């Protein structure tokens, strides 16, 4: 009997706890049944209600697009500004290069002008030097005269001019033709001079003592030399008559 009583008491206690647990389980089960019993249109409603925040997100996306557009504009403006700066730099570089080219061109022109001036000066100096050399050669080289009566008279006049002896071509030629007919080897063997042993000789028939006394330096000491004979005779005539031009007969 006592054993049976203990069993019943224990059963009552478990039953109370079990009821509480069963109530909880029943509530959960009812909820589960309620969820499972929701019609299909409820799912659509839930989806629609969940879509509302998505619409708000779409509005936010438009704002982001605006931000992106602003950034793009800023980048485009920065690019334009960079291009402008690059263009200014390029223009400045071209201007500098142009200026440098102008400076180089001016320097080259100046150098060419200086070179041309130096070349002109050099040519002028060379020309002056050549002229001086020609003058020296002309001065040093004696003038040549033909070996004729005309050449003898002209050469004699040149020597007489240097020594200040007067006389003209006409006066000399006239007296030569009268005295020797232009023969430089002529000799007078019949006049008084010849009789005295000192015959007159040469173009102007000069006696040896007169030739020796009036010989002009720079001419051969040969009484038969045409130039020596003429200059000595003209020197004598200048001393005695003033000039050979004043002689018209034997002298």
TrEMBL record:
Q: Please list the residue ranges annotated as the Transglycosylase SLT domain.
A: 177-246
Ranges where the record places region Disordered: 114-141
| TM annotation in the entry | 20-38
Give a yes or no for keyword Manganese in this entry. no
Gene3D superfamilies per the UniProt record, alphabetical: 1.10.530.10
Sorted keywords for this record are:
Membrane, Transmembrane, Transmembrane helix
Q: Does the keyword Transmembrane helix apply?
A: yes
**Where is the sequence biased in composition, kind Basic and acidic residues?**
116-139
* The protein, known as: Transglycosylase SLT domain-containing protein
Question: From which source organism is this entry?
Answer: Streptomyces edwardsiae
């Amino acid at each position: 009997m006592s054993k049976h009583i203990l069993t019943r008491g224990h059963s009552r206690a478990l039953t109370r706890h079990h009821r509480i647990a069963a109530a909880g389980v029943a509530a959960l089960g009812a909820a589960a049944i309620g969820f499972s019993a929701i019609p299909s249109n409820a799912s659509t409603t839930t989806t629609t209600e969940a879509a509302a925040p998505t619409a708000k997100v779409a509005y936010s996306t438009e704002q982001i697009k605006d931000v992106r557009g602003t950034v793009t504009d800023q980048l485009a403006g920065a690019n334009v500004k960079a291009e402008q700066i690059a263009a200014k730099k390029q223009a400045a570089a071209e201007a500098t290069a142009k200026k440098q080219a102008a400076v180089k061109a001016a320097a080259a022109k100046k150098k060419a002008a200086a070179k041309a001036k130096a070349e002109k000066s050099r040519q002028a100096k060379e020309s002056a030097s050549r002229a001086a050399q020609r003058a020296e050669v002309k001065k040093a080289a004696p003038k040549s005269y033909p070996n004729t009566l005309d050449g003898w008279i002209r050469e004699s006049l040149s020597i007489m001019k240097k020594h200040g002896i007067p006389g003209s071509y006409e006066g000399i030629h006239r007296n030569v033709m009268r005295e020797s007919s232009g023969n430089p080897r002529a000799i007078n063997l019949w006049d008084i001079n010849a009789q005295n042993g000192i015959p007159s000789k040469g173009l102007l028939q000069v006696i040896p003592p007169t030739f020796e006394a009036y010989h002009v330096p720079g001419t051969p000491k040969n009484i038969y030399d045409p130039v020596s004979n003429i200059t000595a005779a003209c020197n004598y005539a200048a001393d005695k008559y003033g000039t050979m031009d004043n002689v018209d007969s034997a002298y």
